[in-house]
Backbone:
């Protein structure tokens, strides 16, 4: 029941936001060119989908984000486990995170170009940077809050180190890991879009950031918002469907949330 | 429900507040004394007249007491948004962003030409003699889709391959300084550069030029224009005249006293005075208030799908001073009109 009411509330909220947008657009407080109405955004979206390039660009974006996230998250877990082994390494990792985490990936773009050239690899490097540090932060926190008794029970019944990590540490730290994933997911999108708006490749390799950059240059605001809409829609689906399912089937089922 | 209401009110407030912030359209009766003129420029030696106008306070000479706000924008695209939002009155920009804006119905027109070329594609690769020599994964760095450089590349590609978009896959969008670094580090095959990066790169013996803008365009072109909103032009004739004449003064200073101009520009571009002087007097550099190749650019942009309509007459896209400059001959075109095709 509660869940249903929450969902209804959310829908009402979104409809209200859209209504405010529409009223503002039709009141012409702002130049129509820069603040398009919902129907012109929708028709731009349909037009772009029919043309098809935006589908490929969305696919490219998601692929780059997944690639960056998988590498970044695996690295983060390895580093975090490593940091649990010794206090000194833990110290180094925490220092590194506090130095690197606030750095926007875009500021590293000159280095990325130097090391990886001007293409896909540089963008993936920046995505990894934006995913890695929040993930380490959350994973380490998750590991630290595991009750000592769990680990002791594990070693008492004779589990190997690797089993303790996969069967005790990771499941116990799952709520924090999921938070890290969620933060990483949204940061990865920001990194991708801004990197592509600074140096974008046209043609088959390009993603949604380039699409938005291009539409912006053409002063095609409905087109820009159509691109933003796709990003919002993907984000919304992943947040409310994918993460929900994972949470339902793990931490909620195991009674780890309140 | 109360919470929703509060939310709604806050939202409305935010939206309406941004709507009623400063929009200075000036006051005719006020003798232009308290007027604020907002001018957008960009970074690069093509925009040198703007910087001379600012540093020598040339507008203030004609309009004492006027407040001039100079803003530097990163690209013509950003300037277009500011023009459409009526946040600036004058702007220095290339022909393609201007024509895109005009085509979309933003009420702006040309005030004057500012500078014509040169620019060109520079590479370190000995094997590249023409754009046809670029291999599949070779990239040309340039400021982005719809930039003057991009249009020139499309013109060349239209000539050689009969398809304006055949080379679009080769473009890597970057700002000029980033692109120059990438070229010097051999990370892109080529850079479609403009001043001062174009001159810096060509001064390097390892680099050579593949294609000049002039070759691609097939004649003289204006690289940078000054534009103004119709609203400002109609409401503030004195201020319009002052800005236009200040620009003319600045162009004259660069052409007549280049040493003097170099002294002003050198610190802005972090170059030595000798280098600056060399760059603003480089072969084919032309600071001029006369437009070139205007309608040819429009026709190609329509062909390549950037704009839907072509200006029928020059008054569709330019203010009276350009119309007067063009002249009118009965039965034939004037020499200046011929330069537009």
Residues:
């Amino acid at each position: 029941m509660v869940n249903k009411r929450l969902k209804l509330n959310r829908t009402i909220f979104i409809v209200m936001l859209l209504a405010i947008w529409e009223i503002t657009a039709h009141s012409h407080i702002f130049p129509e060119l820069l603040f398009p109405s919902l129907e012109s955004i929708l028709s731009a979206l349909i037009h772009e989908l029919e043309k098809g390039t935006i589908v490929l660009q969305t696919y490219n974006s998601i692929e780059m984000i997944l690639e960056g996230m998988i590498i970044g998250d695996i690295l983060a877990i390895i580093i975090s486990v490593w940091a649990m082994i010794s206090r000194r390494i833990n110290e180094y990792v925490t220092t590194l995170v506090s130095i690197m985490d606030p750095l926007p990936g875009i500021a590293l773009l000159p280095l990325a170009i130097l090391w990886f050239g001007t293409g896909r690899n540089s963008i993936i490097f920046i995505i990894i940077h934006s995913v890695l540090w929040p993930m380490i932060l959350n994973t380490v926190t998750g590991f630290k809050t595991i009750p000592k008794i769990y680990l002791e029970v594990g070693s008492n019944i004779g589990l190997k180190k690797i089993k303790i990590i996969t069967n005790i540490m990771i499941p116990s730290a799952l709520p924090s890991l999921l938070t890290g994933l969620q933060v990483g997911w949204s940061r990865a999108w920001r990194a991708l879009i801004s990197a592509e708006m600074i140096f974008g490749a046209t043609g088959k390799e390009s993603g949604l950031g380039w699409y938005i950059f291009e539409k912006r240059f053409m002063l095609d605001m409905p087109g820009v918002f159509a691109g933003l809409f796709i990003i919002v829609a993907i984000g919304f689906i992943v947040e409310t469907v994918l993460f929900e399912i994972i949470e339902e089937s793990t931490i909620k089922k195991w009674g780890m949330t309140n | 429900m109360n919470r929703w209401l509060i939310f709604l009110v806050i939202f409305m407030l935010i939206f309406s507040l941004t709507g009623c912030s400063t929009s200075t359209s000036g006051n005719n009766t006020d003798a232009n004394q308290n007027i604020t003129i907002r001018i957008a420029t960009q970074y690069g030696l093509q925009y040198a007249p703007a910087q001379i106008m600012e540093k020598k306070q040339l507008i203030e000479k004609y309009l004492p007491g006027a407040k001039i706000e100079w803003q530097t924008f990163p690209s013509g695209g950003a300037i277009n948004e500011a023009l459409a939002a009526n946040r600036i009155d004058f702007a220095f920009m290339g022909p393609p962003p201007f024509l895109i804006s005009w085509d979309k119905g933003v009420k702006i027109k040309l005030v004057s030409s500012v500078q014509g070329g040169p620019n060109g594609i520079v590479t370190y690769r000995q094997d590249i003699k023409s754009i046809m020599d670029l291999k599949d994964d070779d990239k040309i760095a340039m400021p982005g889709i719809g930039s003057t450089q991009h249009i020139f590349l499309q013109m060349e590609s239209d000539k050689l391959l009969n398809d304006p978009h055949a080379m679009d896959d080769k473009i890597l969008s970057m700002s000029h300084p980033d692109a120059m670094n990438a070229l010097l580090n051999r990370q892109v095959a080529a850079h479609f550069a403009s001043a001062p990066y174009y001159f810096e790169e060509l001064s390097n013996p390892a680099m050579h030029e593949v294609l000049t803008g002039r070759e691609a365009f097939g004649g003289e072109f204006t690289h940078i224009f000054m534009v103004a909103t119709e609203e400002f032009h109609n409401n503030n004739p004195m201020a319009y005249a002052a800005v236009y004449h200040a620009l003319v003064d600045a162009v004259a200073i660069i052409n007549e006293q280049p040493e003097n101009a170099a002294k002003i520009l050198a610190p802005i571009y972090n170059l030595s005075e000798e280098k600056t002087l060399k760059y603003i007097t480089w072969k084919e550099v032309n600071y001029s208030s006369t437009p070139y190749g205007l309608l040819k650019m429009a026709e190609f942009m329509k062909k390549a799908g950037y704009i839907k309509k072509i200006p029928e007459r020059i008054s569709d896209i330019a203010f009276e001073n350009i119309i007067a400059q063009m002249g009118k001959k009965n039965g034939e075109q004037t020499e200046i009109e011929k330069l537009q095709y």
About this structure: Chain A has a mean pLDDT of 88. The interface with chain B takes residues 12-13, 16-17, 20, 24, 29-31, 33-34, 110, 113-114, 117-118, 198-204, 210, 213-214, 216-219 of chain A (CB under 8 Å).
